[in-house]
Amino acid sequence: GFLTYLIINCTHLLVLGEGARRLHVSAAFNAKPKVAMSRFEPGTSISYEKLHENIDIVRKRLNRPLTLSEKIVYGHLDDPVGQDIARGRTYLRLRPDRVAMQDATAQMAMLQFISSGLPKVAVPSTIHCDHLIEAQIGGVEDLKRAKEVNQEVYNFLATAGAKYGVGFWKPGSGIIHQIILENYAYPGVLLIGTDSHTPNGGGLGSICIGVGGADAVDVMAGIPWELKCPNVIGVKLTGSLSGWTSPKDVILKVAGILTVKGGTGAIVEYHGPGVDSISCTGMATICNMGAEIGATTSVFPYNHRMKTYLNKTGRADIAALADEHKDDLVPDKGCKYDHVIEINLSELKPHINGPFTPDLAHPVSEIGAVAEKNGWPLEVKVGLIGSCTNSSYEDMGRAASLAKQALDKGLKCKAAFTVTPGSEQIRATIERDGFSKILRDVGGVVLANACGPCIGQWDRKDVKMGEKNTIVTSYNRNFTSRNDANPATHAFVTSPEIVTALAIAGTLKFDPETDYLTAANGEKFKLEPPNGDELPARDFDPGQDTYQHPPAESGSVMVDVSPTSTRLQLLEPFDKWNGKDLEDLQVLIKVKGKCTTDHISAAGPWLKFRGHLDNISNNMLIGAINIENDAVNKIKNRLTGEYGGVPDVARHYKANGLSWVVVGDDNYGEGSSREHAALEPRHLGGRVILVKSFARIHETNLKKQGMLPLTFADPTDYDKIRPDDKISITGLATFAPGKPLKGVVKHGDGSQDIINLNHTFNENQVEWFHAGSALNRMKELQ
């Protein structure tokens, strides 16, 4: 049989300690498992002994109690003795245990790793095929079509994984974050993933952080990974969840309090007596959507709910070890948070957030009236449950309990209804236990185990482009056009239970706690509160075996990238800094208002070009609003006087030797971790992104690619920039940490403004700029 232990680590950290308690594993990986199991690397081990040793060193140095976030992060320091530690100020050099990459971002990450010239990854790493499967008909058909359409990319990722020692989860295996929770996350681990919702693993007491591909390459290359020392926001939970209120409502409430940028630069740490009323997968839901408040990550303390989940997913040995080392997996008594929010779960009501932003929070009881007042469509066209945020066994069971009530009264959903299982294990188990049949019978379509509509992979046919309509989802993000590319779609995020209830009712003007439905026989009835088991009574059904372990010997494995491919393109190094100030950068576009990574590098149909930098650059900033004319993808070419698309004008400037700058507003680059939003401007001749403030991941991604992400020292200087200006960046000869730069803004009428510009570069990052990119710098040091 199979050992069902998850053994994860690199040589640097999280080790068990005394030989007798150290776990080593080998197994026949290519056989189909008979029970739910974790995939792992033979000969690696987890160790809490090293974690404890590092925590002890840092606690004595700082001479104060530590939060849980600090314990795990500082426990992974490359140099716990010498590292300068100051929340919100210093940069930490860390040794993560593991890297995980989804297929859309893995393409560029693996292309960069190939460019590094290294033979193998230095830490356990995996690729997960979840982003390239478009929802169209149903799970089986859509998966079959995706395998055909994306064969070139899947073959590249599978062979690159085999060549360089990276595990490969095939299409159909499930969404990266659910796979991580089921297999790779565990209390105390430090994991980075090339997706912004990597924090999902915090539900299992892990510090899991979303990063760009270049960060992943650093870790896979064995280089210490840099992270600005996070502040820690405490969320104290009291009371207990019950009735219609779900774990999703906790993060919907927090998002309403902190907004989309309130968590920037901080880890959100949940604690308090209310924690124990939330399931492990419920905690994961809360951590997952913490990405929408800009948080570095979110985490819960180790407790019996996590132990139960570990046991049920074949990791009882890890649960036993976590029990032994529990003191290192919970916050110290008396630890201090930078900010504390208190939420009484007993008083928390079901919430629904949106439209167009995930922090516009409303109690479900009020959304109908608010929608009427604002002119939002009341009819719910589609309800969508699942996604990486809410696709657990518990989520599906609670949704099915509501669907069953409707069916018993002769009702089906008035809205279209889709169901996205989070993993093959979840799909197989809810199929076995009857949930899928109930959800199909009520009108649902079970989609593939993939991201699907959550990331815009949805071939939607029920409304015309530009038609105003409402959808409700259990997803995490609802930016304009995100789900279906239709800017008139009003998307609301809520719990799977509320989505199901609203899909049955067909309207936003329905509060399931107080309102009645009409049965097929004319009888009025209320839905009883949802119920569902936290975990299956029987073991999980693992379904089909979808994991490819890298071979021990990979010398004969070939990784081919055709020079004529439209999907994949080998990378050329970016040019080094020429040693001079950046003179007369043309303002390419002055962006008005919110500018997420969806605006900068759209997903949906563009996902197919994620491995081809030149082709995907044709979507650069096509969703951003030009302040000059309130239009999207329409800017004036200052060389020709004609209007054109943003990528077209950028290419024309580059061809004519004219470097350019983008000017933006607050929280620029919020949302996804996609580094294409940084690669594309660099590829098309951009040198500077100048904004009021940045989202964390995007700012780092820009630095990695040799761009200059700068912020106005005085945010009102944004108003001084005109769309036809040229800007010179001066002071680069003495570019150094903590030393502002100057911007000389040259207006068309001959006048000038001189403004102060801030940056957050440290010494290593300045070297990235000098070298032209972090990858260039890595090669210089080899």
From TrEMBL:
Cofactor(s) named in the record: [4Fe-4S] cluster
Family statement drawn from the similarity comment of this UniProt entry: Belongs to the aconitase/IPM isomerase family.
Cofactor annotation remark: Binds 1 [4Fe-4S] cluster per subunit.
Record-level GO BP terms: tricarboxylic acid cycle
Pfam families assigned to the protein according to its UniProt record, in alphabetical order: Aconitase, Aconitase_C
PROSITE patterns: ACONITASE_1 (PS00450), ACONITASE_2 (PS01244)
TM stretches of this protein: none
Gene3D superfamilies (alphabetical): Aconitase, Domain 2, Aconitase, domain 3, Aconitase, domain 4
A GO cellular component annotation in the UniProt record: cytosol
Protein name as annotated: Aconitate hydratase, mitochondrial
Summary of the function given for this chain in its UniProt record: Catalyzes the isomerization of citrate to isocitrate via cis-aconitate.
Keywords: 4Fe-4S, Iron, Iron-sulfur, Lyase, Metal-binding, Mitochondrion, Transit peptide, Tricarboxylic acid cycle
E.C. designation(s): 4.2.1.3
Residues in Aconitase A/isopropylmalate dehydratase small subunit swivel domain copies: 586-714
Location (main, coarse): mitochondrion
Domain of life: Eukaryota
Keyword Lyase: yes
Residue intervals of the Aconitase/3-isopropylmalate dehydratase large subunit alpha/beta/alpha domain: 70-506
Enzyme class, broadest EC rank: lyase
An MF annotation (GO) of this entry: 4 iron, 4 sulfur cluster binding
Source species of the chain: Oncorhynchus mykiss (Rainbow trout)
PANTHER family tied to this protein: ACONITATE HYDRATASE B, ACONITATE HYDRATASE, MITOCHONDRIAL
Catalytic activity reported: citrate = D-threo-isocitrate
Pathway recorded for this protein: Carbohydrate metabolism; tricarboxylic acid cycle; isocitrate from oxaloacetate: step 2/2
Subcellular location: Mitochondrion
